[in-house]
Specification:
This protein is of the alpha+beta class. It has helices at about 20-35, 65-80, and strands at about 1-10, 40-45, 50-60, 85-95. β2 and β3 (about 50-60) form a beta hairpin.
Length: about 100
Amino acid sequence: MWFGWIEFDLLLGDVHSLKQKRSVVRPIIAEARRRFEVSVAETGDLDMHRRAGISAGLVAAEPAHVIEVLDRIERLVAERPDIDLLSARRRLHSSEDE
């Protein structure tokens, strides 16, 4: 069994409140869940209105599938015109890792 996750540090565009932030972040999370059937959540910078941390994770039988899905999620986030992707960090582990 293989599991992987990716964490994004995002700079949001013209956002001046936490309510506006939610209107940008929630569609990203919903689209990633719908398109890739992964677990996704806002995980960082919860109280800052122009920054957001989003993480996604998945489990699969093959590492190639995990890598492919993480690549596709990163492209989805990077292509959003209303945000700047500052960084993306990812990890891939096997259930046999110690």
